[in-house]
Design brief:
This protein has 3 helices and no strands. The protein is mainly alpha-helical. The two termini are 72 Å apart.
């Protein structure tokens, strides 16, 4: 009797295993979705270097210190203009119609 059951189970088992042996169907789809991208602004050269006040010491005379302070105002002003221009450029980038949703 057990021999008869194994004869019936063998084709049934082979049928079940062959169903798993097929290759799965893989489909790729392109999904267009807007992604926020940060506008990267590099620090201008005017903002990277040491300012005039950083190059003087407390032992310098008042005229040298005064000149360094005035020069630093000009250096910082130049840095601020470059940074404001970069921010304005990032904020004025054209937006896609999908970004308005």
């Amino acid at each position: 009797m057990t021999y008869h059951i194994s004869l019936v189970a063998l084709p049934l088992f082979a049928l079940m295993v062959s169903g798993c042996a097929g290759k799965p169907v893989i489909q790729t789809q392109v999904v267009e979705k807007p992604v926020a991208v940060l506008c990267q602004v590099e620090t201008p050269a005017e903002c990277k270097s040491a300012y005039a006040v950083d190059r003087i010491s407390a032992k310098d005379d008042s005229l040298t210190i005064n000149r360094a302070l005035r020069a630093e105002i000009e250096e910082r002003w130049a840095c601020e203009i470059k940074l404001l221009a970069a921010v304005k450029g990032c904020n004025s980038l054209p937006l896609k119609e999908s970004d308005h949703e």
